[in-house]
Amino acid sequence: MDRKTSPFRPVTVADVARRAEVSKATAARVLGGYGPVSEEVKLRVQAAAKALDYRPNELARSVSTGKSGTIGIVVGDIENAFFGIAVRSISDTAHRHGFNVILANSGEEVEAEKAALKVLVGKRVDGLIVTPADNRTIAHLRDIVRSRRPLVLFDRPIEGLSVDVVATDDRDAAFAATMRLIEAGHRRLAYVTALHAEPPVFIGPEQLYTSSVKARIDGFLAACHAAGIEAPEQGICLAGGAIAGQQRASVERLLADPEPPTAILASDSLVAFEIFKATQARGLRIPDHLSLISFYDAEWTSVTTPPISVIDQPVYDMGTRAAELLIARINGETSPVRQCILPTRFIARGSIGAPRRLLAAI
Amino acid sequence: MDRKTSPFRPVTVADVARRAEVSKATAARVLGGYGPVSEEVKLRVQAAAKALDYRPNELARSVSTGKSGTIGIVVGDIENAFFGIAVRSISDTAHRHGFNVILANSGEEVEAEKAALKVLVGKRVDGLIVTPADNRTIAHLRDIVRSRRPLVLFDRPIEGLSVDVVATDDRDAAFAATMRLIEAGHRRLAYVTALHAEPPVFIGPEQLYTSSVKARIDGFLAACHAAGIEAPEQGICLAGGAIAGQQRASVERLLADPEPPTAILASDSLVAFEIFKATQARGLRIPDHLSLISFYDAEWTSVTTPPISVIDQPVYDMGTRAAELLIARINGETSPVRQCILPTRFIARGSIGAPRRLLAAI
DNA sequence: CTCTCAATTGAGACCGGTCTCACAATACAT
DNA sequence: ATGTATTGTGAGACCGGTCTCAATTGAGAG
Q1: Sheet-wide strand order for A309-312
Q2: At the top level of CATH, which class does the domain A68-167+315-342 belong to?
Q3: Is A302 near strand C, with its CB below 7 A from some atom of it?
Q4: pLDDT in tens, B30-40
Q5: I want to staple B319 with a disulfide (CB 3.0 to 4.6 A). Which of A230, B90, B102, B152 is the partner?
């Protein structure tokens, strides 16, 4: 510890106190802005602080106050525009309330999520906003709740975990979107999601380890059943994670089927992007050969030909709400657990048409 | 300070020590993994730590070691995919080296940048990666350098500030792209950038407060001059920041000109996006009525009709390099200041054609 | 059977802040 | 003039870690 001898040793309250010829306690009162101080001494200390270019050590402050003024965010993938905006929104709101943000990426891996949580708790964040990667392993989240550290789940509720949530009405949205496809005449529908399964085949809902995915597939299947479509489960495609090429391969396989779907509902904009590119590569025209709806109003969906119909999620609002909820808890609010489910909005664009066979029959 | 009485008081080394029946110093040695400890005591302490669910307080650790294991990032706008990926890449690399990341958004405002820097320095980050918003006011960056805290500028070098930089060959890229437009026969070119100016008219390079913007405009003008184009400065459009509608209005004004440009080079994908949408709204066809090249290979540019030619910037690599450079400095590397200029790659797509009048003449 | 040395261990200072408490100085009431 | 608040200040404990240093122990050497 040669910090004392270094010429670049940061200035401390003690240094300022010495220069202002007051006690450390008094200098701390001025610089920390808490105790009563006379105007004259205040000015003297401030002058000394300025002269020495004093910068408070927030860490030391945090360890003695027990609050860090920081909130931790754990998202699945910052590269995904959905999370990008969420982070932006959370961080805007946090700053507005005087908090900072530490960001961690789980890459949708539970182990990474656990590690990230550990670090954030170690850094004594005042609260956490998490997009849980897997609702089957949540012991680490339970620990957070048990330790009374405020936690808000983002986008993905977890049944049986009593904690604040901000999400969207995934089931309803998927149901309504599927209905639109059915109303357009489609009977061979597919739902493509980024979930990983080995083998990549849908067996049953117990496989769906992300709650939002489950809710959406629920909605999709419910709509199919309501329309009397047989075995809609066969249209569910678990296209795998963001690992290079995995999704693309799944999508290509789907479209290469001798009896390919005539309409697809995509679980997120990345999957939809793969689908769109695959249709282009195969020379398929939307909506003539394939109708497409995607979750999330990504930038690109509005500029393709035709533009893609989407289920718009109010991400920015979601982030703001999550941050506000969290900060309220940090500030001591003790109301019962809240589920904040925001409505989605369907944006109809040119990507929905009648299935080809139907067109031919007319 | 009623922390001691609370039943949720976090477990400390002292608690663990008491339970393991050793001194605080010994427990700390085991938990911190530094001093020599006998195997037997080690196991006892570890068992006690586990039983109590001990979680080290990284803040306390940081204040006594003087290192926080954290690097700070200040970007202009996380919502921008360019920065999104940069953040992702930096954070990946940081984690790989055992560092965490605190994120701050400047919104391209110097004041916010200053504030963010202040907070990050307060939190004693071990190093900083910054995308400076304005190269005219850099006193706060100078302070960082002076205090010997490692700093890497990202994407935007600043002349006269002796500090590590990771950026791209903006001038060359802009020159080459402009040349392509000129070679296609264009003589009325525009360069549209997100810079804000009041009034929004290009007067001279001293106005260009972001170095990358300056370099690109330099390149653009140099190519125009080389081709003997007169008064190319008139084609420079300072379209303003991300404030709602500002860019859109500027772009619409540009296209509504009685003698509109026949080719545009866009400074980033957001501006290009506005331009693309504006052409669609006006019924202009690319590349027949307008040729378009954009900086940055944003997702959407590959799926439009036609797809947009872009200057691809190796963002992920840039982020990785910046993080590695920074971490090397944090670990004590003292080599002279490095400028890491990465090459861009031109991706030719269908958005470049001959100007219309030329076509008509054939 | 001492002596030296290395390996462990504990006591306590320290990091840079906050915060409690006792005390001095002044203001006001009696 | 005396007693009582009120205000400002300093001394020093504390937060939860790290780290220095001296003390204790046992093994091997002479």
Answers
A1: A236-238, A189-193, A263-266, A291-295, A309-312, A345-347
A2: alpha beta
A3: no
A4: 999 988 899 99
A5: B90
Positive or negative, the Cα torsion across A282, A286, A291, A297? positive
A349 and chain B in contact, CB less than 8 A: no
Lowest mean pLDDT of A262-276, B167-181, B244-258, B341-355, name the range: B244-258
Would you say the CATH fold of B170-314+346-361 matches that of B68-168+315-342?
A: yes
Return mean pLDDT, chain B: 92
Question: Rounded to an integer, what distance in angstroms lies between the CA atom of residue B208 and that of residue B186?
Answer: 25
Q: Which of residues 127-186 of A touch B (CB under 8 A)?
A: 143, 147-148
Where in chain A are the domains? 13-56, 68-167+315-342, 170-314+346-361
Phi (first) and psi of residue A287, to 5 degrees: -95, 10
Q: Output b/e per residue, B302-332; b: 16+ Cβ within 10 A.
A: bbbebbbbbbbbbbbebbbbbbbbbbbbbee
A82 in B contact zone (CB under 8 Å): no
Instruction: Pull the structure tokens for residue A90.
Output: 């959370």
Amino acid making up residue A43 = L
Least Cα distance to A261 among A215, A303, A293, A217 occurs for A293
> B361 falls in which pLDDT band (50, 70, 90)?
very low
What count of Cα atoms within 13 Å lies in the side-chain half-sphere of residue B240? 17
Taking contacts as CB-CB distances below 8 angstroms, the residues of chain B near A119 are: 58, 100
Exposed, middle or buried: residue A3 (CB in 10 Å: 0-12, 13-18, 19+)? exposed
How far the first Cα of chain B sits from its last, in Å, is 84
* C-alpha triplet B185, B188, B189: angle, nearest 5°: 95
Question: Cβ(A171)–Cβ(A157) under 8 Å?
Answer: no
Q: How confident is the model at residue A244 (pLDDT cuts 50, 70, 90)?
A: low
Q: Report the C-alpha gap between A231 and B195 in whole angstroms.
A: 55
What is the predicted pLDDT for the residue at A79?
83
Q: Report CA(A339)–C1'(D30) in Å, whole number.
A: 79
Question: What is B68-168+315-342's CATH number, 3.40.50.1370, 1.10.238.10, 3.90.180.10, 3.40.50.2300?
Answer: 3.40.50.2300
The whole-number pLDDT of residue A357 equals 63
Pick the CATH number of A170-314+346-361 from 2.170.130.30, 3.40.190.80, 3.40.50.2300, 3.10.129.10: 3.40.50.2300
